[in-house]
Amino acid sequence: MSDTSINLEALRQRIDQLDDDILRLISERADCAQQVAHVKLSQDEDAVFYRPEREAQVLRRIMALNKGPLDAEEMARLFREIMSACLALEKPIKVSYLGPEGTFTQQAALKHFGESAVSLPMAAIDEVFREVEAGAVNYGVVPVENSTEGVVNHTLDTFMDSSIRICGEVVLRIHHHLLVSETTRRDKVSRIYSHPQSFAQCRKWLDAHFPHAERVPVSSNAEAAKLVKTEWHSAAIAGDMAAKLYNLERVAEKIEDRPDNSTRFLIIGNQDIPMSGEDKTSIVVAMRNQPGALHDLLEPFHRHQIDMTRLETRPSRTGVWNYVFFIDFKGHRDEPRVTAVLEEVQLRAAELRVLGSYPQGVL
Ligand SMILES: O=C(O)C(=O)C[C@]1(C(=O)O)C=C[C@@H](O)C=C1
Predict the structure, then answer these.
(1) Can you give the residue ranges of the ACT domain (predicted)?
(2) 54 Cα to the center of ligand 1, angstroms
């Protein structure tokens, strides 16, 4: 036997021993999670098993402790899956998302809740809200803003008519690929299907590489991928999940014009989330229609040195010229300086609703 094969053998034996340890430790961890479930149930028969603030703390701790060689995000992803499996042992979690299967929203749902969550595709954003409101699922996942294309107005508008709360956020790096099926004539592509937002995010690449192909907008990237299966002269722009789901080949990868293209998704539910230590709060405010209203709204945030991460304006559905403001800022509603700001804004506003305080996205 050569030296290298002896070495390989020894290393594999060591890996087997380590796997034994990992297996034992994961099982012990799962056992602990089951005991946590018993404690929760003994305190409250309607106990909520999923604890986003605790999950965020676990992942942040692991990322801070990690010394490599795996990078912190990779390590957190592994722990994300362990926690997902532990939670499923306590109580399986059901999550609705803006479908169909294979969309970036499904990818975001899995990134946030892990593979052990049961995820159910819905045809529209309102349906995701409705399922959560009706208690048919525990949580929902909807897109809210894209770094290239801006806000998803439909999601914001749906919050105005709903009592649903925001329980979390997840940011997904969006990579688009040009996809074809095994029967596509790659030199004869004359039509490309995709969602309008994806076309917008890949405009320059398309102008340079497929200036003459017809661009056909469809309701989702997954739908685009599905259509390609049946047409020999068509391609689709979609992401990894759709490529995998419909078994398509990537003719060109990462064709988005901006390398930092990302989408933020919200986790919606019926629950108030306690502080995790690094939180955000989202509010919706209607101001009276008078001069200086916007200044009056923003001034308390400035004075209390609260870091505002987003401000969107949407027309209110009640008065013709009235606008409402969607504001995200750092901090949790239970922190004294946040409570103070909310009290001041309440006095100046026609209406204020806290949509939720939740952990800042970790992964
Ligand atoms: O700490 C808890 O409350 C648990 O239920 C345990 C645990 C975990 O596996 O660490 C599992 C699910 C919760 O969402 C948070 C954490």
Answers:
(1) 282-359
(2) 7
In the chain, the amino acid numbered 68 is G
- Check if 33 has its Cβ closer than 6 Å to any atom of ligand 1: yes
Query: Is ipTM over 0.95?
Result: yes
The ligand 1 atom nearest the CA atom of 55: 15
Using N-to-C axis directions, what is the helix angle for 72-90 and 3-43, rounded to 10°? 50
Using one digit for the tens of pLDDT, what is the confidence trace for 44-60? 988 889 999 999 999 99
- Residue 83 CA, ligand 1 centroid: distance in Å: 7
Tokens (6 digits) for 269: 């539910």
Atom of ligand 1 nearest to the CA of 32: 6
Of the pLDDT bands very low, low, confident and very high (cuts 50, 70, 90), residue 151 is confident
Say whether 217 sits in a helix, a strand or coil.
Answer: strand
pTM > 0.95: no
Q: Which two tokens stand for residue 20?
A: 């034994």
**Three-state DSSP state, 54:** helix
End-to-end CA distance of the chain: 45
Say if ligand 1 is within 6 A of residue 36 CB. Answer: yes
- Shortest CA distance to 79 belongs to which of 60, 56, 59? 59
